[in-house]
Design goal:
This protein is mostly helical and 215 residues long. It is built from twelve helices and no strands. Helix 1 packs across helix 3 and helix 8 packs across helix 11.
């Protein structure tokens, strides 16, 4: 399972690629790393924790709106994000992994895409919700489209019980993939078991809301 900030990083990466900067950035900074660098730089400039910034972004706010709310300039935010990438590129030039000419080309693309990113809504991808609904449909015994049709005016709990399934069973089915990913992360030493349990508890709460919500 990806954490909140990692999800936003993934969306940032997708937005950067859509803006045409992904290939250029990848030449000097790993494609999956540059968006993380920009998100961290944005958090530092705005004076908040990266996780808090990710939460605000997932709620539907743009980086520009968050900056305005905190009394920070959008131009300053863009400059901080570009500067963070430039630092990485400078290191690549110093170590011979990138030429100065190529760095300038990459930076020109980064500057353009950052302008789009700060004004783009980077909320969680619809695919995440689609995957959850897919799991729910399998548990209930429906095709995803059929489940979507039945959800009009109803909750997942309503549909599950109407098909002779339990809400507890539905939640267990939805929670299982997250549990598996967390178990794998603990086994690999990426997170502690305590952290995994805390994350699972938060996910469990969100699933309760998702299951009870009427569409």
């Amino acid at each position: 399972m990806m954490s909140g900030s990692r999800k936003v990083v993934a969306v940032l990466a997708a937005a950067a690629l859509a803006g045409g900067a992904g290939v250029g950035v990848a030449a000097g900074v790993k494609r999956h790393h540059a968006p993380g660098v920009m998100l961290q730089a944005a958090a530092q400039y705005l004076g908040i924790q990266r996780g808090e910034l990710a939460k605000d972004v997932r709620s539907g706010q743009t980086l520009a709106q968050i900056a305005d709310a905190r009394g920070k300039s959008v131009s300053g935010l863009e400059a901080a994000m570009v500067a963070a990438v430039k630092t990485k590129l400078d290191t690549a030039v110093t170590t011979g992994r990138l030429t100065s000419a190529r760095e300038q080309q990459v930076l020109a693309r980064v500057q353009k895409v950052v302008g789009r990113l700060v004004n783009a809504k980077l909320a969680a991808r619809p695919a995440a919700k689609a995957r959850l609904l897919g799991v729910a449909a399998k548990y209930v015994g429906l095709k995803p489209k059929a489940l979507a049709a039945e959800l009009k005016g109803k909750s997942l709990a309503d549909v599950a019980t109407a098909h002779g399934k339990t809400v507890e069973g539905l939640k267990a089915a939805l929670l299982a993939p997250f549990q598996a990913r967390l178990d794998k992360a603990v086994a690999a030493g990426r997170i502690s078991s305590t952290d995994a349990q805390a994350r699972l508890a938060r996910i469990s709460g969100r699933l309760d809301t998702l299951i009870a919500k009427t569409r």
